[in-house]
């Protein structure tokens, strides 16, 4: 593997780990707020507090493992799986036209879910793939960076109308795919 690919893999794993660690700690600090977010996602019942605790603890543990480069490539696979589940939940809510808080970084960064949420998860998924240290780590890291920048652009105020609705309408795009 080239030096660029190896460095890209290490940086990608560190970045992914830092994001999971920060997100888990943020959720844990205000666990009741995260429980409310899960309720708005349709995950509830009497187990919502336990699920909130498990998700926060899993993110903290996974973040720690990724930051220190332990249990590779299994840790990256778990991170990619978690991101896929989060993205599927967000996509389901977007398809139902539900506007709710993402809860991605707990209460520290409240934001309404949107296309940018899925694109951001895609960028983190690409970082996870890059961190597996394959010969494609360099190109995957570049793709992850581009996807992350796109998610930032999509979530910027410039692409939102004054009422908070995304200027890029998810439902219009979904309708195009259905026809």
Notes on the protein architecture:
The chain contains 7 helices and no strands. The protein has 179 residues and is an all-alpha fold. Helix 1 crosses helix 6 (137-155). The protein is globular.
Q: Structural class of the helices, strands and pairings?
A: mainly alpha
**Share of residues in strands:** under 5%
Instruction: List how many beta strands DSSP finds.
Output: 0
Give the overall pLDDT as a whole number.
76
What fraction, in percent, of the residue positions are helical?
Answer: 55-70%
**Could you say how many structural domains there are in total?**
1
Q: Give the distance, in angstroms, between the N- and C-terminal Cα atoms.
A: 44 Å
Unreliably modeled segments:
157-179
Q: What is the general shape?
A: globular
Number of helical segments? 7
Over all CA atoms, what is the radius of gyration?
17 Å
Order of helices and strands: HHHHHHH
Largest β sheet strand count, sense and barrel closure: none
Task: Provide a compact summary of the structure.
This protein has 179 residues and is an all-alpha fold. It has helices spanning 3-29, 31-40, 48-67, 74-95, 115-130, 137-155, 170-178. It has one domain (3-178).
């Amino acid at each position: 593997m080239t030096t660029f690919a190896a460095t890209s893999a290490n940086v990608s794993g560190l970045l992914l780990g830092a994001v999971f660690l920060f997100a888990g700690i943020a959720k844990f600090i205000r666990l009741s707020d995260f429980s409310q977010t899960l309720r708005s996602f349709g995950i509830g019942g009497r187990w919502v507090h336990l699920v909130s605790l498990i998700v926060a603890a899993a993110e903290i543990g996974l973040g720690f493992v990724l930051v220190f480069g332990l249990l590779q490539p299994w840790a990256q696979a778990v991170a990619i799986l978690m991101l896929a589940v989060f993205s599927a939940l967000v996509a389901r809510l977007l398809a139902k036209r539900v506007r709710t808080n993402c809860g991605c970084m707990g209460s520290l960064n409240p934001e309404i879910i949107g296309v940018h949420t899925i694109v951001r998860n895609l960028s983190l998924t690409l970082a996870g793939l890059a961190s597996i240290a394959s010969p494609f780590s360099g190109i995957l890291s570049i793709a992850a960076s581009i996807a992350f920048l796109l998610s930032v652009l999509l979530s910027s105020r410039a692409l939102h109308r004054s009422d908070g609705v995304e200027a890029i309408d998810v439902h219009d795009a979904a309708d195009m795919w259905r026809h």
